[in-house]
Amino acid sequence: MNDIYNYILHFLLYGNDEAAQHVGYTADKSEWSKYKVVVIPSGHFGKDWVLPDMNSPHAQKLEGHDTWIIDIDIIYNTLFFISRAEELTNKERDEHGRFAARFSILGQHNRLLIPLADEYGRLLVKLLELPVISPEFSRICLTHDTDALTQYRSLRGTLGGLRRGEFRQTARAWQDLTFDPVYTFPWLVKQDAAIENAQSFYFIKLTGGKGFDSPQYGFRNSDYQAFRRLLLDSGAVMGLHSSYYGKLPAAVPAASGIDIRFHRSHYLRCSIEQMQRLCEAGITDDFTMGFADMAGFRLQTSRPVRWINPETMQLTQLTLHPLTVMDGTLSQANYMNLNEDEAYFLCQRLFDKVRQNNGELCLLWHNTSVTGEGSNLPASTRSYHRSLYPKLLSLLQ
Asked: Which element (helix H / strand E) includes 163?
């Protein structure tokens, strides 16, 4: 457990090794005066897990000393969130087998909009009289899940278009790839390029194309290779979008261009067991960690953090990148069902929290949510996202 305690403490202190030496984690009162700050361990997730503000009465001076005593076990509470330990005891799942926000104490207590672990870190920084955390994004990740490459430019897509009487749209799509309403990647690349110091990620499906994994696109056809060249020219990273059914590919075709180190689960489905499989497969960075049904801080941090397996209590080499917000979470009727203005102001609030904590901003916008004229996708997927996305990016400039 010492490696986990040391990691969490260093994480809360933004990697400040010297400052970590001045923090004690002990209930032994005879030891308290040796430290500038003492956290009293409880060994369990306490009822006082909500830290009201930076002037919380939970931090008090040790009488006759300059030592601050924190009587909330912020080390264990942080472990509880970043390891996803709650999912071991709460077995509720939604129709896709996901642990949803509405099942979590975070959703039930309306605590998703404030990254509590980052607040713990800011409290330690304040009590240790360290320099104030720089209010800026440490990194901006603009991510896109490529669930479908085109709408009409496949045999199934063509037959579907003709059956619906969409002759003009089908013919235009076959005339030019960029006329296909789902092939919005040039538009996304252009939007993302306007943000300096941002990194774009496109997660590519490598599945059997059955059921919820449908459709699968061929990696050797000209459309996919044009898409790949576009991304390579833009400097985007192509990561793995694993199967809805939790399967990881035995091999990655060279023609796909996928960098196996980077991963996101399809439909944001990810269990503790699958996380362990990611570690064993050599995946180093996962971008799944957000609730589909509610935007906010699922891990209670805005910063990348190494995953701790709550079953084995092993500190792994897998880094979790918290997902700040996904497009469909905002607009879909079965999720937050916000209009465009409501979605904009919610995102602005989340962005401010990430910036305040020197966190990593991670957005997920699908190419199918910013479709062009002629798309027959449901309105719930198209919605207002082609309008909203540039507005949100303007907040980052």
From this structure: helix 155-163
- Using a CB cutoff of 8 Å and minimum separation of 24, what contacts does 254-258 make? 255/219, 255/220, 255/224, 255/225, 256/204, 256/206, 256/219, 256/228, 257/204, 257/228, 257/231, 257/232, 258/204, 258/206
| Single pTM value for the model | 0.93
pLDDT, one tens digit per residue, over 297-342 is 999 999 999 999 999 999 999 999 999 999 999 999 999 999 999 9
In this prediction, residue 381 carries a pLDDT of 47
Nearest to 157 by CA among 218, 207, 208: 218
- Residues 24 and 34: their CA atoms lie apart, in Å, by 8
- Cis peptide, bond prior to residue 215, ω within 30 of zero: yes
Structure-derived torsion over alpha carbons of residues 366, 372, 374, 380, reported in degrees to the nearest 10: 40
Q: Given this model, what pLDDT does residue 54 score?
A: 43
Segment 111-147, tens digit of pLDDT = 899 999 999 999 999 999 999 999 999 999 999 999 9
> What is the rounded distance in angstroms from the CA atom of residue 368 to the CA atom of residue 187?
12
Question: Where do the structural domains in the chain lie, given as residue ranges?
Answer: 2-127, 139-394
Confidence class for position 154, pLDDT limits 50, 70, 90 = confident
Would you identify the CATH topology of the domain 139-394? TIM Barrel (3.20.20)
228, 279, 325 from 387: Cα distances, Å? 25, 38, 16
